[in-house]
Amino acid sequence: MAILGAVIKGIIDLKDILTSESNPIEEQEQVLKDLLDTAKDTAFGIHYKFDELLASENTSKQFSETIPFFDYNKMNAEWWHKLHEGGENITWPGRPDYYALSSGTTGKSSKKIPVTDDMIAAIKSTGIDQVSALANFDLPAEFFEKGILMLGSSTDLTEKDTHLEGEISGISASNIPFWFRDYYKPGEEIAQIEDWDERVQKISDNAKNWDIGALSGIPSWIELMLEKVIADHNLKNIHEIWPNLQVYTSGGVAFGPYEKSFMALMGKPMTVIDTYLASEGFIAFQSRPETDAMKLATNNGIYFEFVPFKPEYINQDGSLTSDAPTLRLSEVAKDQDYALIISTVSGTWRYLIGDTIEFTDVARAEIKITGRTKFFLNTVGSQLSVNKLDDAVNHIEEVFNVKIPEYTLCAKRFEDDFYHSWYLGCESNLVTEEVVAALDEHLKEANKNYRVARSKALKGVKVAVVSPSVFHEWSGAKKKKGGQVKMERVMNEEKFKTWEEFVAKQ
Q1: By CB neighbour count within 10 A (0-12 exposed, 13-18 middle, 19+ buried), where does 154 fall?
Q2: How many other CB atoms are there within 10 angstroms of residue 506's CB atom?
Q3: Where are the bilayer-spanning segments (predicted)?
Q4: In 3D, which of 111, 115, 96, 94 has the Cα closest to residue 168?
Q5: Strands laid side by side in the 111-115 sheet
Q6: Which domains does the chain carry?
Q7: Which of 49, 114, 52 shows the shortest CA–CA distance to 88?
């Protein structure tokens, strides 16, 4: 009997029993008031008269009507640049000890997003809530004694002036609680290695010494790490070296496109738990096994607002129009795409995070990520969000019995008209004409706007099949490997031209 594991599982089960049923709407109202009260004496709070907002009869309504939308560029140009110049009490009390360098799908590390001590505490608190939710997944006591391999960015943060910089996964890992350090793999020494290939090699070298029960990280990079371990140790699947591996915690992107290729590396069934950790905070996590949707962290330092994701409210660059309507949690509906707006304990205010979501259960505040505001494919009126593109790729996998873990596309003008030009990452031989027909027909049936576009300005579909490794090398060449880096699902024509030139050289 795993005594320690039984004790930990017992504590988690007890916490779950003792925790009262939450009310996300009430929690959000309190979070907003706490944010405004804490920041009312900052430069931002004084400028936007937070004290008057707090005294209003309808604080949340007055909040949305008083403060404009911000994205990173606007927030940095008007407020955060003062922090970089040595200022304090700008958008949050004091001065941040950390800055998250955001790469994500854009590949630009120039974004420096403040990460305050209050945000570190909020991330830890949401992490504890996620661990507590494991009580719902019926995991055996032995699981709670196994190692957890977290593959994020390097924890060797860069010291700049009075703060440290790095990706949010590296910042979070460098602040793990002391009691978790015995479970945490690959350990502090390996986690500090900056070079991703070198870090993965060290993980592979040490793999046989670890008893791993859970994995955590971006699916594409986790897959590459697993493939390396399997190849180096001449294994048939990863369970031959980690027989007690039971849980994979995905994050940042939809797991669906990776599911088939990921599970092919396994020798046993896996419990997959989705999480949503962004550079701006720990936004949501899957709290129960009956769904793959994630529960918004409504009580840990983030106030959420939602803009209906419709073409009339979205500018060409993915930003919001100034007159776009805002909904509170109490006003949202199921099965509607929303652009996510957040205000946080790091001093982001009415901030367009760039992701789109939909609610699967409003009462539980459960969501799914549906795409990115910039990756909304609507050049010729087809109105395709990333989740619809993911569904189409999953359809191709099923029809042709193949694995397609990566893809990208562009609405590209050719000599005769616009086409959706796809690149699919697949090791199998595919007849492109058959894929074109299946892809086009599926999208016509699944999306009426696409069907209308195909009868007008959208001439058709083009498909090229390349090795998935091309996508990984693109990330390595244009950004860097590992961490929070994700592949662009939709590119503009300028970026797509660079992509096609890159592919031609491979």
Answers
A1: buried
A2: 10
A3: none
A4: 115
A5: 111-115, 98-102, 163-166, 158-160
A6: 1-370 (3.40.50.12780), 377-505 (3.30.300)
A7: 114
What is the torsional sign of CA 120, 61, 349, 254?
Answer: positive
Spatial contact of 164 and 156, defined as CB atoms under 8 Å apart: no
Is residue 442 within 8 A of residue 454, CB to CB? The reply is no
Q: Between the CA of residue 305 and those of 294, 344, 386, what are the distances in Å?
A: 16, 12, 21
pTM, whole model, 2 decimals?
0.79
325 vs 9, residue with greater confidence:
325
> Facing residues of 246 across strands?
none
Burial tier of 302 (Cβ tally within 10 Å: 0-12, 13-18, 19+): buried
Q: Which two tokens stand for residue 469?
A: 């490794």
The pairing of strands 163-166 and 351-361 is unpaired
- Position 169 pLDDT exceeds 90: no
pLDDT in tens, 68-117: 999 998 999 999 999 988 899 999 999 998 888 875 444 444 688 898 99
Query: Rounded to an integer, what distance in angstroms lies between the CA atom of residue 116 and that of residue 344?
Result: 10
- Cα–Cα distances (Å) from 442 to 141, 394, 446, in that order, read 44, 11, 6
